[in-house]
Every structure is written in structure tokens, then in C-alpha cells.
Write a structure and sequence with these properties.
The complex is a heterodimer. In chain A, about 55% of the residues lie in helices and about 20% in strands. Chain A is built from 24 helices and 22 strands. In chain A, a hairpin with an 8-residue loop joins strand 14 and strand 15. Chain B is of the alpha/beta class. The chains are: A alpha+beta, B alpha/beta. At the A-B interface, helix 14, helix 21 and helix 22 of A face helix 2, strand 6, helix 3 and helix 4 of B.
Chain lengths: ~775, ~260
């Protein structure tokens, strides 16, 4: 007989049972893929670095006999260095590389080197996560460059080595843990041993450098190798330690953190909705349960009946959800998997299975909790659908007759919301979280895209920039270059003010010599007006400004003295200003107007155009045409080149988020409205009998949800703006920015995205209101 | 007296499990303004279906329903809703009201909606005054601010009558309005309906109760979707006493097979 009751129940309440089944399936799919993604993203970078055997310290130095000797001596004396590997490299610039016409060129900000595919340390992997080899004439390109240039397999790449041309065919795009992160300005291109030897033979000896990679001895901290190397008199062209490699993946970690938050959001919404639906469907069954009790069924029998039904639904839904979670996880982590090796294996599958089992158990738990209420209730209480009729406070706070103008439907909607606010918790939380989860990354993107952000990268705000020249050049020579460029601009009648922006290598000398560190020093000639968190710009030769991160790390405040080695001479500087910068993990100094280093390590020319803002784009375009050799860029272009990959990823995450959030709010709103209508059949039937049209009843439903949505969006947007700033302030601190204020675009945050959510919700409500048409006055007698 | 409701060859058919059920078969009758008619008959004879079909709540399958010179079958759902809002009132056995509103707000709700159309020139304060007047007349003014869960069945049904009358309808449809009430409350409700009818409102009521039907002008007896008979009792006056009318009705009903 139980079987018969069960069969009839499943047939009779087909819609509700299907809704519940779909929801359990969705919840399982979301939770299983969410937890899977959480595990993957939180462990991926560490896993990738380990799998790639990234060296504890890698330094690139010119391949001279003296340097070789120095390295040998140093490693022999150091007990902390376990293994040493060396491999030759050839430095190339973007101007030497020619790509097919349809591809974007290499960014001039990249420092490129040619190397052979490593097989012992700093390993690289192809798109199938396998080690690979290259034959003569073939070249391997890192994925980040493929994304920036749009290159495809089979493309031809030609390089010019002092008039000797060499062509390669792109046969591999590789994942590079060592230098592959977007934030890493160094990139390596892989060629075969034979091609490397051919190129080496046509180049002078000084064009070849060597990359030494050190692994710490067993039981020694990786950072100890870097600290020991800093004390030596060895000037490396480039130095990358494991810490820097980890930091270079921060943008990916931010993306991972966002995906992590999305997963949490999905899991939370899934649980809330599951609970809400089970409670609602069981409430609908109270009357039947009451009737069963009245005719003598025992609690245990009733419980068994409903548990059997919900167990069936939970197991079927859980299994379907688990199966669909695998492609969903792959879709969500697809972008990350392009250039990071994700930890695969059985762990992911186990996590997904555990999540699915958890959902099945939770469904049953919610069911048992709801049944407990029925256990306590008498037959008649159950028939009254769990409502005893007792109430200890007034249910109404609004009175229609006191309102002069309020539309009756708006009044009904407001009255509903106020008197039953608690029952709308699921929907309110969904809306609040949806708004917050979209707005936070938008604010973040806008903050990064503001012109001011470029100053955090160590570059002054300007209308245009020439290409950065990375080379050791005496200061006098680059001043000469500025004069030459100024004359050229004058000859072409450009009304501009040019400045020289250069960097010099400075080395912080700590009191005990233990934490010496090479730090980039920047300077503008003439001095630019820059922002300082504390103090003022350094002017005299013995003054300097340091970053807030350095101030904290070295315990140096305004007015303190700090020692730097510049041009092989130690200087003691008075700190006059503290600023924030994002590059080099926030380690940077600004040199004083009257301090002149002899050698510079890089320079660029920046310019301000004396013209109205609206004309600047055209003027810049003209400059680009006339002075193509300087590769002129606007501030936007400059910013995109440096953090374009990150912005691209952020925008993909925002698009993914918008789609996921819209789907979720559509589904939850539809489900909610359908459940509300099914509970309000009597009320709707009465309203119809009173002459209210279907349109008016739909309006009531829409207005009710709109009120909830409006309130939720306000809370969500404000929360996102306030909490989001704190959350990402913490993240940016890791980059070096100690004081970050979100750049909020009111039109986007308060108008555009809320309108998108609003449109989705209104569509969801309207499409879910179809049931209203089929409610008739005789439904008043049915529940 | 002019005709308010003219029903010609009305048929209503339901299809259940692929088989056809003729619930109403060629129904013909006419109602004039100010009349008070009751519909009686065994369960399943089609009484409620007739009430809902002639009031435009349900679509007819064939025939014509002319209400206040309007062919209901030719009106759209929105036009029918407008007719219900301005020209009809409904009372049901289940005294269902909106749970989130007070008794008073339930009564004035459709009044406020009605004056949003140009057809009704009253203001919100006119509606409030009219609601006060109706509630006072029906003796429920003291429960105006109450929640619907706080009042008795009789009070609630009287509140439902007030709600049905708030837009001063030409005709009132009542589906077993006393069915869920005790005899005292049922008597009070019937007294109100008689008074409303005396004031000019046409009423059509479905009932199983002989005492209720005896107070109406005319009784239609339905069997298997047909009107089998019609008994004209004439206007009921308090003075004449209901017993004689009940006796006449009982005899007639027996003859009909009641």
C-alpha cells in the first residue's frame, strides 16, 4: 500500500517533484564542481611550481671567465647550495622578432631570451602537460605570449641577429611556471640545441649570457640562497627566486580567489535553496500527513513514506549532479588550465563524490528536520498545514486605508514583504550576494584601469610614453637622447613637454648585511609631481623616498637615514617621502632631483601634450605615425601592456560571473515565484473573483520581488563597495599597495549591472506567472 | 423591470480523461433587475458551474449569456474582469480573504482598484466612508482593524458581503454563502442579503438550504445539467413569515425528486 501511495504521490505532484529533483541535481553539480574548483585553484600554483622544479634562485649574468670563476668560488664555499645548473641564453628584443602580419607584435616591455628546452630544472610543459623536445627550425612560445599576440601553431617567426636571419615554425605553446606568469616581465622562447648553436656561432661572446640556477641544500630554506647571494659582489642582469615566482602568480591567485568565492557563493545558494524547497514542499504535504495521522498511521510509517520518496529523489538527483559536475568543473577551470598545470588525479573525483554524498545526506537531514515538526504536531495541526493560528504580534504594519495614492498592488506587495520578510530570506541573500559578487570584480577592474594606477607601477602619469629601453647606459647619453627627441618633436610642430624617466640599480644595505636587496631607483628629469603617502619628494642629493612596504620591512620612517649602494658606492640618504608602488613586490625608491647616478638601467621618455583633452587622441595618433621608431603608447596602452593579461582574465571572470549569477537568479526567482503562487492559489482566485485581471496579479508578483530586489541591490552594492575595498586592500598589500581606494563607476555599479539583474528578475517573474492564468475561482476550495 | 441576465441555450462541457462530461445542457432563463433567485438541486447537478459560467468566471462551451446588455462570451478576459470589478459581486462558501490585510483593507482593496479606472468617480475617502457605512449596516464595524484570523465565521462572511458590495454592483452571485455557518450566523447573513436585495441589488444564490431558498423570489431546480423546474415564490416580506414559503417549497422540491 505504501508503494501505491508513493506511486500516486510521484504522479500527482509531478511538477513539484521534478522541480525538487532538478534542484538537487543542480545543487550537487554546483557543490561538487565548486569544491573541486576550490581544491584545484588553491593547490594549483604550488603544484605547478613543484612539478616544474623551479630553482630556489636563478641569476642571469654575462658569460665571462671572471663571472664563471666567481660563481664557482661562491657555490664551493656555500654549504647552503645543494645543486647548481647552468644554461646559456641569448637576449633578444621585440624589434628583432618578426611575426606574421595578422599577429600583434611582441610587447616592447618584455625582456626576451632564447634558450633550449630545459630537462633538469625550471621545466616547461606542452598543452597536454607533457615534457617536450624541439627539432631544428622549431620554436616554442609561452602561452602568455600566444594570448597577447594571437599566434597559432604553424606560424612563422623570423629573427634578425645583426643581419643574419633565422626563421622558425611555432610547434609548441608551453606552460612555464618559472617565467610564464603575466606579471613576469622576463619571458623565454625555446629553440632546439642545433639552432641555438647556429645562432651562438654568429654572435659575439658578450651577447651570450648564462643562467645559473641554484637549489638549496636539504633542510635549507629557499630564501637563504637569495640572502647569501645578495651579500656577494656579483651583479646579475636578472635574478629570479622562488619567492618572486610565487608572487608573479598573484594575479592568477586573485582570479583563483575569485573562483573560490564564486564556488562558495554557489554552494551557499545551493544549500539555501535546497532547504527552502524541501521545507516548502513538505509544508504542502502537511495536510496529507495530517489526514494519515487522523486515520491512524503511526509517525514512523509516515516518516518512512516521505523519507523513501526524498531518498529516491536525493539519490537520483545526487548521481545526475555528480556526473554533470565533471564537465562543469572543467569549464570553470578552463582558462586557468591553459597555462597552469592543474593537479588532476583521483583526489578531485573523491572530493566531488564526497560533495555529492553530502548533498544527498543534507537533503535527507532537511527532510528529517521538517518531519520532526510533524512528529510533534497533532493531526489537526498538520491539517492546518503547520499553522496553529496562534500569533503573538500583529502581522501588519501598513494600512491601505491610510494611504492616499499608493497603488493597491504596490500596497499588497509591500504588505507581503513586511509581514513575511523571514520567508524571503533565501531570495534576499541570493540577490545581495549576486550583486556583491558582480560589483567587486568590476570595481577592481575599474580601479586597475584608472590612469592613477600607472603611477603605482613606477611610471608617472603622462599623455604618452616612448618604448622602454632596457640597457646599461650612462646618464649623459640618455640626456642626449632626450634632446634629440625634443628637437624632432619641435621640428614636426608638436607642442609637448617631454621628460626623461629612468631607473638606476640601487642596493639596500642593511645594518647587519643579512637583508641586502637590489631595488630599482626611479627618477624623472625634470622632476615630476608625484603623490606621496607621507612627506615630500626628495630634492637634495642626500635625500630619498622609499615605499611604504620598505618602510615597514626595514623599520624606517620619515627623517630616518637609510643606506644604498649606487654605482658601487655606498650613500646614506635621509628619507623625505613615503609612497606606494606595485612593481617589484612594492620595493622601489625615488631618487632626489639633485642626485645623479652615473649609469642607468632603463629609460623612457614621457610627454604631456599642450592641447584640449578631446584632441589628444588624434595628436598621439599622428606622433605614432611620424615616430614609429619610438613605439609611442598612451597611458591606457601602457597599462594594458603591463597588466593586460590580468585585465583580460578579470574581464573573463566578470563575464563568467555575470552569466552564472544571471542564471542563478533566474532559476531561484522562478522557483520562488512558482512556489509562492502555488501557496497563494486561494488568494489569487479571490482576487480574480473581485475583478483583478491577470495582469494586475502579475504586477503584484513583480512588485513584490522588485521591492526585495531593490533593497537587496542597495545592500549588495554598498557591501561590495565597502567590504570589497577591504578585501582587495589586503590582496593589493601583497603587491605593495598599502592604501587602495576602489574606483567606483556609479553608472556601471549603481545603474548598468543592477538593471541587468533587474531585467533577469522581471523576466523570471513574468515567465513564472503563467500559472496565474490557469487559477480559477473553484481553486479557492483546494490547497 | 428591465432584464439584467439573459441565458440562452447555455452548454458547458468538460473533457476529463478523454471522455466528455456535459455539465450544463441547453440552459435558458432570464433574470430581471431586483430579482432574488436561488438555484437548488442535488450535488453534481451543475449549480455552481451555472453560477460561475453566467458570471463570466468560467468560459461557456455553447450558447449565450447576456449580462447588462453585454455578450460575456465575446468579451476578453480583461473586459470580463472589468465587468466583475464594477458590476458584479461575489460571495463564496469559503470566506477567503487575503491573510496579510486587515478585515477593513480586504473590503476596500477592490474599491481602490475600481477607482483607478475612469468609470468610477469616487475618491479613496468616498470608498472608506462607504466601507464604514456597509460595515456599520452589517454590524461588523468593531472588527474593522482585526486580522481575519481574529474574527468569527459569521463576521467574516458579513465582511465578505461588504467586500462584494464595495463597488455597488448591479448583481451579486453567492455560492452557498451560509454553507459553512451555524444556523444563527446563517440567519443573520440571509437577513442582510434580503435587505440588500430590497435596496435594489439583483442576487443569484446557490444553496442546499430550504430556509435560505424560501426567502428568495424564485427557485430554479437543476438535475443533470438541466433546469428541471422553476418555482415563483414572489417577494418575501418579513411579516408574512417564512414557514408557509418553506412548506410550499418543500412540497415542490419533493415533486422534483429532492
Amino acid at each position: 500500500m505504501f508503494l501505491n501511495i508513493l506511486k500516486k504521490d510521484l504522479r500527482r505532484k509531478k511538477t513539484m517533484n521534478i522541480v525538487l529533483l532538478v534542484l538537487i541535481t543542480l545543487a550537487t553539480a554546483l557543490v561538487a564542481s565548486g569544491t573541486n574548483l576550490m581544491y584545484t585553484t588553491s593547490s594549483a600554483i604550488g603544484y605547478f611550481i613543484d612539478k616544474s622544479k623551479v630553482a630556489d634562485l636563478s641569476v642571469t649574468i654575462p658569460d665571462t671567465a671572471e663571472n664563471r670563476q666567481k660563481i664557482n668560488d661562491w657555490t664551493r664555499d656555500q654549504a647552503i647550495v645543494g645543486e647548481v645548473y647552468s644554461e646559456p641564453q641569448i637576449g633578444v628584443t621585440s624589434r628583432q622578432i618578426k611575426l606574421p602580419a595578422s599577429r600583434n607584435g611582441f610587447s616592447s616591455n618584455l625582456v626576451l631570451s632564447l634558450a633550449m628546452v630545459p630537462d633538469k630544472i625550471n621545466l616547461i610543459f606542452d598543452q597536454k602537460d607533457q615534457l617536450f623536445k624541439l627539432d631544428a627550425g622549431e620554436i616554442g612560445i609561452p602561452v602568455s605570449i600566444r594570448n597577447a599576440t594571437g599566434m597559432e601553431l604553424g606560424d612563422s617567426v623570423t629573427m634578425d641577429f645583426d643581419g643574419s636571419y633565422k626563421s622558425f615554425k611555432v610547434t609548441a605553446f608551453f606552460k612555464d611556471a618559472f617565467l610564464g606568469a603575466d606579471l613576469m616581465g622576463l619571458k623565454r622562447l625555446m629553440i632546439s640545441q642545433q639552432d641555438f648553436a647556429d645562432i651562438q656561432s654568429v654572435l659575439p661572446e658578450e651577447a651570450i649570457s648564462v643562467q645559473y640556477s641554484f637549489m638549496a641544500a636539504k633542510g635549507v630554506e629557499a630564501s637563504a640562497v637569495t640572502a647569501a647571494f645578495a651579500k656577494e659582489d656579483l651583479q646579475a642582469n636578472f635574478q629570479v627566486d622562488k619567492g618572486l615566482v610565487e608572487t608573479s602568480f598573484l594575479t592568477d591567485q586573485i582570479i583563483s580567489a575569485m573562483l573560490f568565492v564564486i564556488s562558495l557563493f554557489l554552494i551557499f545558494i545551493a544549500f539555501m535553496t535546497l532547504r527552502f524547497t524541501i521545507v516548502s514542499t513538505l509544508q504542502d504535504e502537511y495536510r496529507e500527513i495530517g489526514v494519515m495521522k487522523a486515520i491512524g498511521f503511526k509517525n514512523g510509517s509516515i516518516k518512512g513514506l516521505y523519507l523513501a520518496k526524498y531518498s529516491g529523489l536525493a539519490v537520483i538527483g545526487g548521481a545526475a549532479g555528480l556526473i554533470s559536475s565533471f564537465p562543469l568543473s572543467a569549464l570553470m577551470s578552463r582558462k586557468t588550465a591553459e597555462y597552469i598545470i592543474l593537479p588532476g588525479g583521483i583526489t578531485n573525483i573523491i572530493i566531488s563524490i564526497i560533495s555529492a554524498i553530502a548533498i544527498v545526506l543534507l537533503t535527507l537531514l532537511f527532510c528529517i528536520l521538517c518531519m520532526r515538526k510533524i512528529n510533534k504536531a497533532s493531526a489537526i495541526d498538520a491539517i492546518r498545514q503547520g499553522h496553529t493560528g496562534e500569533r503573538f504580534k500583529p502581522s501588519r504594519r501598513f494600512h491601505l486605508h491610510r494611504s492616499k495614492r499608493l497603488h493597491p498592488m504596490l500596497f499588497l506587495a509591500m504588505s507581503d514583504v513586511v509581514s513575511r520578510l523571514k520567508s524571503y530570506t533565501t531570495l534576499i541573500l541570493t540577490f545581495i550576494l549576486s550583486a556583491a559578487i558582480i560589483i567587486i570584480p568590476i570595481n577592481l577592474t575599474n580601479t586597475i584601469l584608472t590612469p592613477k594606477f600607472i603611477s603605482y607601477l613606477g611610471t608617472t602619469e603622462a599623455d604618452f610614453y616612448t618604448k622602454a629601453v632596457v640597457a646599461d647606459i650612462p646618464l649623459n647619453e640618455i640626456r642626449g637622447e632626450l634632446s634629440k627627441v625634443e628637437q624632432q618633436f619641435k621640428d614636426e610642430n608638436f607642442d609637448v613637454k617631454l621628460s626623461l624617466e629612468y631607473t638606476a640599480l640601487t642596493k639596500y644595505i642593511s645594518d647587519d648585511g643579512e637583508s641586502n636587496r637590489s631595488i630599482s631607483g626611479t627618477k624623472n628629469e625634470p622632476a615630476a609631481s608625484l603623490e606621496y603617502l607621507q612627506g615630500t619628494a626628495p630634492e637634495l642629493a642626500n635625500e630619498i623616498a622609499i615605499t611604504s612596504i620598505m618602510s615597514e620591512a626595514y623599520h624606517k620612517k620619515l627623517g630616518d637615514y637609510i643606506v644604498f649602494e649606487i654605482d658601487s658606492q655606498q650613500h646614506s640618504f635621509l628619507i623625505t617621502g613615503i609612497f606606494q608602488a606595485i612593481s617589484n613586490e612594492g620595493y622601489m625608491v625615488r631618487l632626489a632631483g639633485e642626485f645623479y647616478p652615473q649609469m642607468t638601467t632603463s629609460y623612457m621618455i614621457t610627454g604631456m601634450i599642450h592641447a584640449p583633452d578631446q584632441d589628444k587622441a588624434a595628436i598621439t595618433a599622428e606622433m605614432k605615425r611620424l615616430f614609429s621608431q619610438y613605439e609611442i603608447k598612451t597611458a591606457d596602452e601602457m597599462l594594458k601592456e603591463v597588466i593586460g593579461g590580468f585585465i583580460g582574465q578579470l574581464k573573463s571572470v566578470i563575464s563568467l560571473l555575470t552569466v552564472i549569477v544571471c542564471l542563478i537568479i533566474f532559476f531561484i526567482t522562478s522557483l520562488f515565484v512558482r512556489l509562492l503562487i502555488s501557496k497563494e492559489i486561494q488568494g489569487i482566485a479571490v482576487m480574480k473573483s473581485l475583478g483583478f485581471t491577470d495582469g494586475l496579479i502579475r504586477l503584484w508578483q513583480v512588485l513584490r520581488i522588485m521591492i526585495l530586489l531593490t533593497g537587496s541591490l542597495i545592500i549588495g552594492a554598498l557591501g561590495a563597495n565597502i567590504l570589497g575595498e577591504r578585501l582587495f586592500g589586503f590582496v593589493f598589500r601583497m603587491f605593495g599597495l598599502t592604501e587602495l581606494h576602489f574606483q567606483i563607476m556609479p553608472l556601471q555599479v549603481y545603474v548598468m549591472y543592477p538593471l541587468i539583474i533587474l531585467a533577469v528578475v522581471v523576466t523570471a517573474v513574468y515567465t513564472s506567472c503563467g500559472q496565474i492564468k490557469h487559477i480559477h475561482v473553484w481553486n479557492m476550495n483546494k490547497e | 423591470m428591465s432584464t439584467i441576465l439573459e441565458v440562452t441555450n447555455l452548454c458547458k462541457t468538460y473533457i476529463v480523461n478523454k471522455s466528455q462530461h456535459n455539465v450544463l445542457r441547453n440552459i435558458n432563463f432570464t433574470l430581471h433587475e431586483g430579482e432574488f433567485v436561488s438555484i437548488m438541486g442535488p450535488s453534481g447537478s451543475g449549480k455552481s458551474t451555472l453560477l460561475y459560467t453566467v458570471s463570466g468566471m468560467d468560459r461557456l462551451t455553447a450558447g449565450e449569456v447576456l449580462f447588462n446588455r453585454k455578450q460575456l462570451s465575446q468579451l476578453s478576459q480583461n473586459e470580463i474582469a472589468e465587468v466583475r470589478l464594477h458590476e458584479m459581486g461575489f460571495i463564496f462558501q469559503q470566506m477567503y480573504m487575503l491573510g496579510n490585510l486587515s478585515v477593513y483593507d480586504n473590503i476596500i482593496l477592490s474599491g481602490y482598484q475600481a477607482i483607478k479606472d475612469k468609470k468610477d468617480n469616487r475618491s479613496r475617502s468616498d470608498i472608506n466612508e462607504y466601507a464604514d457605512k456597509l460595515m456599520r449596516k452589517l454590524g461588523i464595524i468593531e472588527i474593522a482593524g482585526h486580522d481575519i484570523a481574529e474574527v468569527s465565521g459569521g463576521q467574516l462572511q458579513r465582511a465578505c458581503i461588504c467586500r462584494a458590495l464595495i463597488n455597488a454592483p448591479m448583481m451579486l452571485f453567492a455560492d452557498e454563502p451560509t454553507g459553512a455557518l451555524n444556523s444563527k450566523a446563517a440567519k443573520e447573513v440571509m437577513e442582510e442579503l434580503c435587505r440588500i436585495n430590497r435596496e435594489g441589488t439583483t442576487i443569484m444564490i446557490v444553496t442546499h438550504d430550504v430556509k435560505v431558498a424560501a426567502q428568495t423570489d424564485k427557485v430554479l431546480y437543476m438535475v443533470d445539467g438541466n433546469i428541471q423546474g422553476e418555482l415563483k415564490l414572489g417577494k418575501f416580506a418579513e411579516a408574512e413569515g417564512v414557514r408557509e414559503r418553506e412548506r410550499r417549497l418543500n412540497e415542490w422540491l419533493m415533486a422534483q425528486g429532492w
